[in-house]
Specification:
702 residues
Length: 702
């Protein structure tokens, strides 16, 4: 389904469930709200409306806007007695398109209600919403008289009761107008009825449509046309075209007199526990056909209930399941059950009625379900009375792996902050600068990590502030510090399902603190260590979707802790220059977490990082005020694996294991007779981690 179409549907449904405050769909549309019987009766004397009263034989009493055929939003609410009058969103001679008709908490008894009806034009892209209402009338989303009825929608919700025939789109040529000519005369008999949809919402009562017939896309065929088809041994390819008309049951089950003239039937948001039965004789069907005539049969007719000479088209059945279910292979449910009498499933069954998407469907956001249809093959009077669906396999929906990838991205961003305190220690533990010190550091980076299903890309800012002291001891210069750390990063993910791509925006935020110390001996050998702990938050917006196209994200919170150990030696050279060689080991752990997405339970394990970095840095030592240094290092991640489960299925492991080479260039500025020192550097990364970073460290020596 196109996203624009879904947006229109969402707006209409929103109107129903939010007090009918929906603005017009079009910026230039007009909106009318008729609230209550008194307001309805007052339309008779309203100059903007036609209040047409017919005799009983004609049966066409209705109210319609004058000279406003398209781009209307018309809301009828709290109407308890329509007195035999039908209502329309737009009606007249010419195109009647882009209308929205909403009937809420009302009873309409009439010949028909229509989103858009055209005497001699197109009736396209109209929407009818029926909520908590009783409709004793035929319902048309769009009715194109001599032309098209394309892209219309009917949405049924709440405690509604519809007694009549429901047409998503109806392209019509009345019998008394067949004198226009036969097809070989070059004139068209009727228009197209494509891309129409009828949606029955989950909260609709089970008996709402017990006395209704459903046709999602209908092209009328008169008796004269049937005679022409008989004479030509079938329907010409260019006649009576209708494509991609859909009935969608959004978690609804119930009874309908007939379902016909429908290309696609979607059984969405199925709760298997409501329908699975070990005994097929007591299976509860999702859709029950109550009609008992041959013309109530479950089949996709071309344009008339008399199919003997016309034939039928394919029906594609789509399914989706509620999230959070333990779905097992072998489970069987009944999709369609035909009642008594002559009504049956289309006689070609498996040749005409097929599962869409190759039999693949989805449960929530985490499970992929493959199944198959089976049909009634009995030879007694119950022959050809049902359609069953059996689950053949249940696997992980690959898009769920994005959760592991997002978690790995957040952890990688946290781990980048491991080195900040180590850098700060170097400036606290400066020779000949003793006493109390404060410091602050800002670090920004843009990094990409390979070795995953989708390369992880994350950028952001980190920082720390702290206090400490550098003291002269018998063992050497000892610096210690306590600090607070914070970081905010962003990452992007892309997923796809059923050919629809979705771009998700992720963010990682951590807050924590730690302690650190460094001891440097008179011979230049030093050792350092730090401990850190805090909370990591990882949020992802629009990272996953279900089969209905709804987008989902998640929020995760995990505690983290870590430490680092380092040793090195500073070799003093001539003219104040020096070489620093070092080896540092970093360990971090992000603790496990669990959360629910669209009913599916995600359980994520601990993520551990163990990294060894060895490197060398050359300090030019030009003077005490301004120094330039260069460095190179090699780092290896021994761990970095992210694991978890989605609704019991193991997620694909995301690993950050591998080697990275690092180059750096920095300057240290220490003004004469000033307590301040500034250390600014840039780094470049290649290998498992690609990208660059920059940081500024400011230290104040009291």
């Amino acid at each position: 389904m196109k996203r624009t179409t879904k947006a229109l549907i969402a707006l209409s449904v929103f109107a129903v469930f939010s007090g009918l405050t929906m603005p017009p769909r079009d910026a230039h549309a007009d909106k009318w709200v008729i609230d209550g019987d008194t307001a309805f009766e007052a339309l008779e004397n309203n100059a903007e409306w036609n209040y047409f009263s017919s005799d009983k034989e004609n049966g066409d009493s209705h109210v319609e806007l004058k000279d406003k055929r398209s781009n209307n939003t018309v809301i009828f609410k709290n109407i308890k007695d329509s007195k035999g009058f039908g209502v329309a969103g737009g009606r007249g001679n010419g195109d009647t398109s882009n209308n929205t008709l909403i009937i809420d908490n009302s009873t309409i008894t009439a010949n028909w209600i229509e989103g858009g009806y055209s005497y001699n034009g197109n009736a396209n892209d109209n929407i009818v919403v029926i909520n908590n209402s009783t409709i004793n009338a035929h319902v048309y989303g769009g009715d194109g008289h001599l032309k098209d009825a394309i892209g219309n929608k009917i949405i049924i919700a709440g405690n509604s009761d519809i007694n009549g025939t429901i047409y998503g789109g109806y392209a019509m040529v009345p019998g008394n107008e067949t004198g226009m000519g036969m097809p070989d005369s070059g004139k068209n008999w009727s228009g197209r009825a494509d891309d129409n949809e009828i949606i029955i919402k989950k909260n609709t009562s089970e008996n709402a449509l017990e006395h209704a017939r459903i046709y999602t896309g209908y092209v009328s065929i008169t008796d004269d046309m049937v005679e022409y088809i008989k004479a030509n041994n079938g329907v010409p390819d260019d006649m009576f075209r209708k494509e991609n008309n859909t009935l969608t049951l959004e978690g609804w089950s119930g009874r309908v007199e007939a379902v016909r003239s429908t290309d696609n039937i979607n059984f969405f948001d199925i709760n298997l526990s409501n329908f699975v039965s070990d005994d097929p004789n007591i299976a509860k069907p999702i859709l029950t056909i109550t009609g008992d005539d041959v013309n109530d049969s479950f089949t996709n007719i071309i344009g008339t209930d008399a199919t003997a000479y016309i034939g039928s088209k394919d029906i594609n059945i789509g399914l989706s399941f509620e999230g959070g279910q333990d779905i097992k292979a072998g489970e069987t449910i009944r999709l369609v059950q035909i009642g008594a009498g002559d009504a049956t499933v289309d006689e070609n069954k498996g040749k005409k009625i097929k599962l869409s998407n190759g039999g693949v469907s989805y449960a929530g956001v985490a499970q992929k379900v493959v199944g198959e249809l089976s049909f009634d093959e009995s030879n007694d009077d119950t022959n050809n009375k049902y359609i069953d669906y059996t689950v053949k396999s249940v696997d992980l929906n690959e898009q769920a792996n994005v959760v592991n990838e997002g978690r790995a991205a957040a952890a990688a961003f946290l781990w980048q902050g491991d080195e900040l305190i180590s850098e700060a220690l170097g400036q606290l533990n400066v020779e000949d600068k003793y006493g109390f010190e404060t410091f602050a550091m800002v670090y920004g980076n843009d990094s990409r990590y390979g070795g995953t299903a989708h390369d992880l890309s994350i950028n952001g800012w980190s920082g720390l502030v702290g206090v400490g002291s550098n003291n002269k001891t018998q063992a050497g210069d000892l610096a210690w510090a306590v600090y607070f750390e914070n970081g905010y990063g962003n990452y992007d993910v892309t997923t796809s399902m059923n050919g629809i791509s979705l771009d998700g925006d992720g963010s990682a935020v951590y807050n924590g603190g730690g302690i650190a110390a460094r001891l440097t001996g008179d011979n230049g050998v030093y050792g350092e260590a730090s401990l850190r702990a805090g909370l990591l938050k990882n949020d992802l917006d629009h990272g996953l979707q279900n089969q209905a196209g709804e987008a989902f994200g998640y929020e995760s919170e995990s505690n983290y802790y870590g430490f680092h150990l380092g040793v090195g030696k500073i070799f003093k050279l001539e003219d104040g220059a020096s070489v620093d060689t070092y080896a540092k080991y970093y360990h971090s752990t992000v603790k496990d977490d669990s959360f629910t997405i669209d009913g599916d339970e995600f359980e994520l394990g601990d993520i551990d990082s163990d990294r060894l970095r060895v490197g060398i840095r050359y300090n030019q030592g030009m003077d005490r005020t301004f120094n330039v240094y260069y460095g190179a290092a090699w780092e290896y991640e021994f761990n970095g694996d992210s694991n978890g489960y989605a609704e019991g299925h193991k997620l694909e492991e995301t690993s950050l294991k591998g080697s990275t080479v690092i180059g750096e260039l920095g300057v240290i500025y220490q003004p004469v007779n000033s307590p301040w020192s500034i250390d600014a550097k840039v780094k470049g990364y290649g290998g498992q981690r690609d990208g660059y970073s920059g940081s500024i460290l400011a230290t104040y020596h009291f």
